[in-house]
Amino acid sequence: MALIVQKYGGTSVGTLERIQAVADRVIRCKEAGDDIVVVLSAMSGETNRLLGLAQEIDENASEREKDVLVSTGEQVTIALLSIALQKKGCDAISMTGDQIRMHTDNAHGKARITDIDDHNIHAHLKDNKVVVIAGFQGRSPDNYITTLGRGGSDTTAVAIAAALKADECQIYTDVDGVYTTDPRVEPKARRLESITFEEMLEMASLGAKVLQIRAVEFAGKYNVPLRVLSSFTEGNGTLISYEGNKMESPVISGIAFNRDEASLTILGVPDKPSVAASILAPIGDANIDVDMIIQNSMGDNTADFTFTVHRNDYKRAKELLEETSSKLGAREVQGKDSLAKISIVGVGMMNHPGVAKTMFETLGDEGINMQLISTSEIKVSVVVDEKYLELAVRALHSAYNLEQ
Amino acid sequence: MALIVQKYGGTSVGTLERIQAVADRVIRCKEAGDDIVVVLSAMSGETNRLLGLAQEIDENASEREKDVLVSTGEQVTIALLSIALQKKGCDAISMTGDQIRMHTDNAHGKARITDIDDHNIHAHLKDNKVVVIAGFQGRSPDNYITTLGRGGSDTTAVAIAAALKADECQIYTDVDGVYTTDPRVEPKARRLESITFEEMLEMASLGAKVLQIRAVEFAGKYNVPLRVLSSFTEGNGTLISYEGNKMESPVISGIAFNRDEASLTILGVPDKPSVAASILAPIGDANIDVDMIIQNSMGDNTADFTFTVHRNDYKRAKELLEETSSKLGAREVQGKDSLAKISIVGVGMMNHPGVAKTMFETLGDEGINMQLISTSEIKVSVVVDEKYLELAVRALHSAYNLEQ
């Protein structure tokens, strides 16, 4: 008998019919002999509908009150699923974030979990109940309602699985697992049976948006085996754990990519240690996320400094950089706003030198110019003109034999 | 400086525009120097929408889960009003039933308030905040969400006003006060400046559905001055208190009525003390509410026994009564299902004999036959054929000079 935490996302509980289907699936697992804890999101669209109401009144509505507002979405679905389970003869009980004592800090709208009191959940499991928990929400030290931010339901599920020492945390979504790359770009993309936490983190942060990165970090930290699978079809999904699948042992597990990149370069800045901070501080102060950062010393006591941002932030970042350029007496500011980043990811590359070489050769053969390159232990990322994105992904998928 | 509890019903917060209008009204009162606590219902229609979802899954959905579900309705409106108040520069904070420690018993769907911890509310008032509280909801001893049943928001407001020793509890609704009778039946009906708790209880229970009877009882018990007024128009509404308005001092304050009455009579039952219980026990066991009860001894050791029920319960009650009739060896069961009850209500009648005589004469002059009569200290009720309802109400309104 195992203890399984199952999380169902918004599309999985988007209609009453789908809620009934979730109930059927939960009951099948329960009847197979496992203890089941369910974590739910709001019905798809509901969180946005509620936030829309708040924004109609005030675009800068208080985060505390928005948390009170949007946390109702999950409260509705936990009640409806509990009713559906009971109707089908399965004993179930709903629990809000407050009721399971999901303690968080005070950061409304993006609260961090500090502690879970698993006492209540264990008591209900002992009574042979399915416990249906509202994702995304917690309570602050002031006993106010908090939310964990978008995708917080995944984090809730992992945190509960960690607190309960569950055997597995299953994330049900509308895709049936993690793929070698986006099947919309490369139809030959293949579902992975398993992947490591580290690879998943690189895949997720690079745009393969199956799982919230925070949930993966959390699962890795507490070593909770995580499984991504579809609530609409049968199948084993993809298991995310520390081991990965040794039998499979590929050099590269997948190819992630990000559209909507933009790069900014400041040429001829003084080549001294403080210059990176001088350049990036105004960007950070404007809440603009910087992704890749590259600095080249030119040998004449000046350096060229390049970084990438989301395309939406390009215009503002360029303005800020031009101000910095005047202050530093730099030569010029350049920028490009139609770029894409492509990354090959795999723990196998740690033991296989020459992995990057295959990438560069493949892109070179296709006549694709790499504008920036950045490497880490388990990934190599390149930035290319966005128009080459699909061509590059398909060429790399084939070069690394990801279709098997 | 007074402490005022204001309760706004579902139509008053039915749209974002109306929520903004409520915010404006709250701010006007706050700026006049009063401390304001607001109690809100869900947006009109929302509670029914949510219950509809539960019923689509299970017509007999658990009361506990229905409470989790429907309590979200008020949680949405308190957040939205708080956001609207803040946007307009008024410091405000929303509080759920759980957060103000609205303790209730375990009777999900119809919970009774046991205690309120006013500590939190007082603390926020001291900080010069408007406190916006979710009506209708509380928390059980198990820390589960409870609801007080339909109209529970009125009760919440009165309970909070009592706990805070507020100077007045204002119930904002879509009518501008309590009328001498229903203006749809008698266009000359007049708004009352004031009315006593006892009169209001008689009016409310008889169908003048402005206020929940439970809230009036509660207000009377804790001597909380209650004011009914419109959230759509200006005006003083109607004050409900122990004093009433001595200056006005009318014999009759108003005329209440109930359609949809039915009467049942069992003829020739043994005239002994236990017979009423024998007749009514099966009716009560079937959850049928009995209103008027009349027993006439016939002098031959038998009695005739008549009672009224809601028309919807007529058929079932008649079946039960026929079973009882066989058991008791009664002569016959009779019934009528198209009746209406009309009542004149007023504390003044305690000191004015002859009030009932005017009623009987007036109805007699109009050729209206009274099928049942029942009296209490402050009201006289008669049951007539429903087709005479409007005629009777108008004739009595005029006979008692209620239009002034």
From TrEMBL, chains A, B:
Binding positions for substrate per the UniProt entry: 47, 74
GO BP term, pick one: threonine biosynthetic process
CDD domains tied to this protein: AAK_AKii-LysC-BS, ACT_AK-LysC-DapG-like_2, ACT_AKii-LysC-BS-like_1
Pathway: Amino-acid biosynthesis; L-threonine biosynthesis; L-threonine from L-aspartate: step 1/5; Amino-acid biosynthesis; L-lysine biosynthesis via DAP pathway; (S)-tetrahydrodipicolinate from L-aspartate: step 1/4; Amino-acid biosynthesis; L-methionine biosynthesis via de novo pathway; L-homoserine from L-aspartate: step 1/3
GO MF entries: aspartate kinase activity; ATP binding
EC number: 2.7.2.4
InterPro entries (alphabetical): AceGlu_kinase-like_sf, ACT-like_dom_sf, ACT_Aspartokinase, ACT_dom, AKii-LysC-BS, Asp/Glu/Uridylate_kinase, Asp_kin_monofn, Asp_kinase
Name of the top EC class for this enzyme: transferase
UniProtKB keywords: Amino-acid biosynthesis, ATP-binding, Kinase, Lysine biosynthesis, Nucleotide-binding, Transferase
GO cellular component assignments: cytosol
ACT domain location: 264-338, 344-404
Catalytic reactions of this protein: L-aspartate + ATP = 4-phospho-L-aspartate + ADP
UniProt: ATP binding residues: 7-10, 173-174, 179, 184, 209-210
Database matches in PROSITE patterns: ACT, ASPARTOKINASE
Family named by the database record: Belongs to the aspartokinase family.
Protein name in UniProt: Aspartokinase
Species name: Agarivorans albus MKT 106
